[in-house]
Write a structure and sequence with these properties.
Elements: H1 2-19, H2 23-35, H3 38-56, H4 65-100, H5 103-114, H6 116-160
Length: 178
């Protein structure tokens, strides 16, 4: 029992030391995130989440006043939950950036996103995402029948296999995409 506790204590000390290793890099990461207007990005995301929440919690046609009230309350709870998660993610971004990017990269990012070209890029990101989302949805619609076919083929292959052909602890092989 003492060894696991000792290992956990050492792990906590090591990870704590790594996380606080370079305060300058962490501060630079915070500057980059601020210049990139991450808070505005999450405000935009919040608007999208609100729209999704209203779709998920839409009361049925002819809903009673009580059902309408419950739907509104559910939408509020979904928004509160989503916003808390988004704010928590923003709070972790600086540590993530400081971990992934080195100081030279962060300085270059700061310089770029402070420039007119960088600000233009940030301002146009919602347009890019707006045009990208339909393409992603189209790709998903096209992939779903193909994925279903692959899964159906794998299931048929597994069902046709004799019990002696399938080892007990081996997962079945999913055929490669053609």
């Amino acid at each position: 029992m003492k060894k696991p506790l000792l290992l956990l204590a050492i792990l906590a000390l090591v990870t704590g030391a790594v996380a606080q290793e370079n305060p300058a890099t962490l501060a630079l990461a915070r500057e980059v995130i601020s210049i990139m207007k991450a808070d505005q990005m999450f405000d935009n995301m919040a608007a999208q989440m609100k729209q999704m929440a209203s779709q998920v919690a839409t009361p049925p046609p002819g809903a009673t006043p009580e059902q309408m009230k419950q739907s509104t309350e559910l939408q509020g709870k979904i928004m509160d939950l989503s916003m808390a998660a988004a704010k928590g993610m923003i709070a972790k971004m600086d540590h993530l950036y400081a971990e992934v990017y080195n100081e030279t990269e962060l300085k270059a990012m700061k310089e770029f996103f402070s420039s007119s070209a960088g600000q233009s890029m940030l301002a146009k990101q919602p347009q890019v995402m707006g045009k990208l989302m339909p393409l992603v949805q189209e790709m998903q619609r096209e992939l779903m029948p193909k994925i279903k076919q692959l899964v159906d083929e794998a299931k048929a292959k597994q069902a046709a296999a004799k019990p002696a052909d399938v080892p007990a602890n081996k997962p079945f092989d999913v055929p490669a995409a053609k």
